[in-house]
């Protein structure tokens, strides 16, 4: 299998995220279903490349980013949410918010690189119409 590169995935993810209601849909998956947005984006990417993964491979992808998500991204999102709620009490809120958003974006990109590294170690099946995202969203 050809190795996927993180730059191609990042570009795909940015385009998809900005289309229509995709941002709201992905954030709903994250906030209402506890799904990882970067993993969703990767699964959409694999679907677009006609590459299917197994449930076991999906589980491995979830495991490879779980600690980073829990220890780094979720606390940063929580801090950003706290500051937003209390912005009137925060001096220089706009600059702090901008810096936090920039840091979060860099960390999201790092997590995407982790996913690409992991998926490049897997044997993926070529399939005419894979539905990797559906498998992930169906998992409770």
TrEMBL record:
Listed name of the protein: TIGR02444 family protein
Matching Pfam families: DUF2390 (PF09523)
NCBIfam families per the UniProt record, alphabetical: TIGR02444 family protein (TIGR02444)
Organism: Pseudoalteromonas arctica
Superkingdom, natural source: Bacteria
InterPro entries recorded: CHP02444
Lineage, opening ranks: Bacteria, Pseudomonadati, Pseudomonadota, Gammaproteobacteria, Alteromonadales
């Amino acid at each position: 299998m050809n190795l996927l590169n993180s730059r191609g995935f990042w570009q795909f993810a940015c385009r998809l995220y900005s289309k229509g209601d995709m941002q709201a849909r992905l954030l709903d998956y994250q906030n209402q279903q506890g799904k990882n947005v970067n993993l969703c984006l990767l699964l959409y990417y694999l679907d677009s490349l006609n590459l299917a993964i197994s449930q076991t491979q999906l589980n491995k992808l979830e495991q490879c980013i779980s600690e980073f998500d829990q220890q780094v991204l979720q606390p940063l999102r929580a801090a950003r949410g706290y500051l937003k709620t209390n912005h009137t009490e925060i001096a220089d809120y706009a600059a702090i918010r901008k810096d936090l958003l920039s840091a979060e974006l860099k960390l999201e990109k790092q997590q995407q690189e982790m996913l690409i590294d992991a998926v490049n170690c897997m044997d993926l099946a070529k399939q005419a119409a894979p539905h990797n995202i559906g498998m992930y969203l169906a998992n409770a």
